[in-house]
Amino acid sequence: MAVLARARSARSQRPWPETWVAAAFVAPAALVILLIVVVPLGRALWMSLFDIQLTRPGVEPFVGLGNYIDQLTSGEFWGSTGRALWFTGVSTALELALGLGLALLMDQPLRMRWLLRSIVILPWALPTIVNALMWRWIDNAEYGALNAVLTQTGVLHRYQPWLSDSDLAMWMVIGADVWKITPLVAILLLAGLQTIDREVVEVARVDGAGPLALFRHIILPLLTPVILIVLVLRTMEAFKVFDIIWIMTHGGPANSTQTIAIYAYQTAYQGFDFGRGAALGYLIALVIMVLAAVYLRLLGRTGRT
Amino acid sequence: MSASQRINAQPRGRPTARRLLRRAFLYLGMGLALLVVLAPFAWLLISSVAEPVDLLRRPLRWIPEHIAFDRFAALTFGSSADSTALGFRAALLNSTIIATTVTVVSLVVGTLAAYAFARLRFPGRSWLILAFMATYMLPPIALILPLYQIMSALHLRDTPLALIIIYASFVTPFVIWIMRGYIASISSELDDAARIDGCSRLAVLWRVIVPVALPGLVSTGLLAFLMAWDEFLYALIMTQTNASKTLPVALNDFIGRFGLDFGLLASGGVIAALPPVIIAFVFQRYIVAGLASGGVKG
User: Residue B83's pLDDT is what?
Assistant: First the structure.
């Protein structure tokens, strides 16, 4: 019936309208994207080919790929890229591991499960800035709750300057990020768990599979597509991290938490070097777009698109 | 009984020692998870109502001697001669206006496009949807310099409008992405019936699709609001005064000005966190559905 109706309605109209209607429907969104994304993107590319110093207005010589070459041969660039990769790798790994544990826990038939399920979303909902502020306060060297807990329980004997110690600061930032993001990962993985066909699991159980074997050979393989998607999505977000680090440490101490986005921001807005800043932005975008392509491919393969 | 419950349901029978141990272990894990999630919140709340003396004590007092809501009162209703309160209230208002407008605009513009992507056939459809997705994922740091120059040239810097336009540029693709999937899952027989009754495409969208897709619109709208409420980098660069500063920027300023007044920072943080936390708690079902139905920003 529906096919007939569709065919009839298509025939009764001129051959073009669907395209025109579609154009009209998509136009407002396309216009926004064109003006706010495509045009600036082109301009950023243009800017990245010039030596633009805000401290030296009017003199903007063309340098070609000079800004890119400068960056790709500078220690600061690779240092901050390395730190971004470290932040990304460690926080994503922790979020996945803990999130998987949390998802499995929330999936158990426990009496208070509803409580955990309704509470767990709260860290994710806390605005990033508030989360960063909160952890900055908890990790405070003199008055922080972390120091108080650890000394009062006898784990530590002296207060630690968590955020002003260049060996510790990155770990504290990662900790704050993991606290906020693990619930999101758990929620996504729980949704994945709930789509697993229970028949498969039942059959395996009847065949005598214990909980561990069940997890390794049934649940984990079936969950792999979701895990991959979460992995790529988190990698994309984590690599361009800015907010939480900016609020907690400003990239310090001694640049120990200066990731690539922080470095780009500092180059452009504290070094007033817009040419190099634009080049850095492009380099970051390049990495993200490669990850995005992987992500979209994964989505396509799991049929979620 | 849901599928997931079945997976973990044990075969009926006597509670062996092993099963009891397993249950104890699971409850322990749950207790630990609740503690880890709630303790930082508790400390934020306590800090927001504690007197400064109690917060700066060593060893730390966990339960403050005096509880005072005066910082909340000062920030929300206090004298407007107090520039801190004035700035904070301006930021609260800006954030509300910006996030609400972005949500409404993106929902309208995005749902229109989503309908076209889900229902209409037109040349370039598949690459166009990919292009929208790509713009959604583009890092702000790549666009911020030209946008800064463009907004300056248009005299839009430091206006809420600049942030509304910029936020709409990444929230709209998100809406398209989620709503396209949602609309595609609605049977097109509904559309066809309405078309035969003489409805235009727009009328079909408004009278047939929107009512059926309402739950999807709600969850998408809530996530859109949270995204706009949370944004920091663009706001940090585009805003300068109370005319357009949003809550994240105002809180960032607090750190600079009241470095040691953690009580005030905590109070401001609690107020900024209330709308999203309440939304997430009350509309949990919608939020989780929205998160699960498509890639979302952390």
Answer: 81
Closest Cα to residue A130, out of B249, B87, B236? B249
Look at residue B50 and give its three-state secondary structure.
strand
pLDDT at res. B229: 97
What gap in Å lies between CA B254 and CA B269, rounded to an integer?
Answer: 10
Burial (CB count within 10 angstroms: exposed 0-12, middle 13-18, buried 19+), residue B2? exposed
B6 contacts chain A (CB < 8 A): yes
Q: Using CB atoms, which residue from A105, A137, A229 is nearest to B29?
A: A105
What is the C-alpha separation between B1 and B111, in angstroms, rounded?
Answer: 35
> Hey, of B12, B45, B132, B137, which one would you mutate to test binding to chain A, going by the most A CBs within 10 A of its CB?
B137
Q: Which two tokens stand for residue B12?
A: 């009926």
Query: 10 Å Cβ neighbour count for A227?
Result: 17
Residue A224 scores a pLDDT above 50: yes
CA distance A128 to B167: 16
Q: Is the peptide bond before B211 cis (omega within 30 degrees of 0)?
A: no
A143 Cα to chain B: minimum distance (Å): 6
Q: Which CATH architecture has domain B72-292?
A: Orthogonal Bundle (1.10)
Give the one of A44, A145, A219 whose C-beta lies nearest to B145's C-beta: A44
Distance from CA of A100 to the nearest CA of B (A): 13
B173 to chain A nearest CA, in Å? 8
Find the CB nearest A121 among B29, B112, B280. B280
pLDDT score at B13:
54
Q: Which residue has the tokens 């792999």?
A: A224
Separation of alpha carbons A180 and B29, rounded Å: 18
pTM of the model: 0.89
Q: How does pLDDT run across B13-63, given as a tens digit for each residue? A: 566 888 888 889 999 999 999 999 999 999 999 999 988 878 887 778 888
The tokens describing B210, both together, are 């929107």
- Measured between beta carbons, which residues in chain A are less than 8 angstroms from residue B130? 296
The answer to whether the Cβ–Cβ distance between B195 and A191 falls below 8 Å is no
Contact A281 B132 (CB under 8 A): no
Query: E strand or H helix at B277, and its extent?
Result: helix B262-282
Closest by alpha carbon to B183, among B134, B113, B124, B285? B113
Residue type, B233: L
Q: Name which of A19, A137, A143 is nearest B265 (Cβ-Cβ).
A: A137
pLDDT value for B296: 40
CB contact under 8 A, A191 and B291: yes
How many Å apart are CA A257 and CA A80, to the nearest integer? 8
What is the maximum span of chain A, computed from C-alpha positions, in angstroms?
Answer: 83
Q: Which residue ranges form the domains of chain A, and what is each CATH number?
A: 56-302 (1.10.3720.10)
For chain B, the domains span: 16-68, 72-292
Structure tokens at A90: 């460690």
CB-based contact A21 B201, cutoff 8 Å: yes
* Across A39-43, A281-285, B242-246, B286-290, least confident range: B286-290
Which structure tokens are listed for A11?
């025939």
Across residues B242-260, what is the average pLDDT?
88
Inter-chain touch A137–B266, beta carbons under 8 Å: yes
